[in-house]
């Protein structure tokens, strides 16, 4: 367990293993625990660094407006604090948005980028977009985080044999700081860097669950805007792919990272 300071905020991160640096960035309302099924396998090959995003986990939860650019700046500060040089970055959901932001702002800091069940923008365009957002926003204000966690668990892990994952989800969600959770949700809505994707120069892997919230077609469309990217679809998976299909996910990610590292060595 380690901490560092950035802009008056104490941020928590964990480190495992040795080798080329690999950052794992969790999603909204989550923490380093998003990656419990990845860390042991990845740490056998890489120096794995797992931060808690500002407002999440063991990091401080300052009473302020959050932004994806701010979360990204915290990551840049961590990279500098640990003197990592170019690193591999894997981001799930909101973590993928933070990865996109860092990749367009500071492309030289990334060796590769892996985006999991995420997108380079969350823009409200249609009346239905606004209605869906308002519905979620209202429920988040009214319901307890424990109730939201239970509902999310049932949606993400619907199978009978996933009871353990449902239970974990409900318990973990209940531990969130509600104000920080809402501030992070507000940071996502209206954010976007899609028009700057040509700046992402590193090799990029986009992983999509076949049953993610957003359709595979959406990921296929933005993959075309990235200079060096490919899409892999993982079957029988929902939004939390690293947890519901860990074996397939780890295999796909490790193959990608190995290819990137081999190509770098060859040059």
UniProtKB/TrEMBL annotation:
Entry superkingdom: Bacteria
SUPFAM superfamilies noted in UniProt: alpha/beta-Hydrolases
Pfam families noted in UniProt: Abhydrolase_6
Location of the AB hydrolase-1 domain: 22-251
Entry coiled-coil feature ranges: none
GO cellular component: membrane
InterPro entries to which the protein is assigned, alphabetical: AB_hydrolase_1, AB_hydrolase_fold, AB_hydrolase_sf
Keyword annotations from UniProtKB, A to Z: Hydrolase
GO molecular function: hydrolase activity
PANTHER family: AB HYDROLASE SUPERFAMILY PROTEIN YCLE (PTHR43798:SF31), MONOACYLGLYCEROL LIPASE (PTHR43798)
Name listed for the protein in its UniProt record: Alpha/beta hydrolase
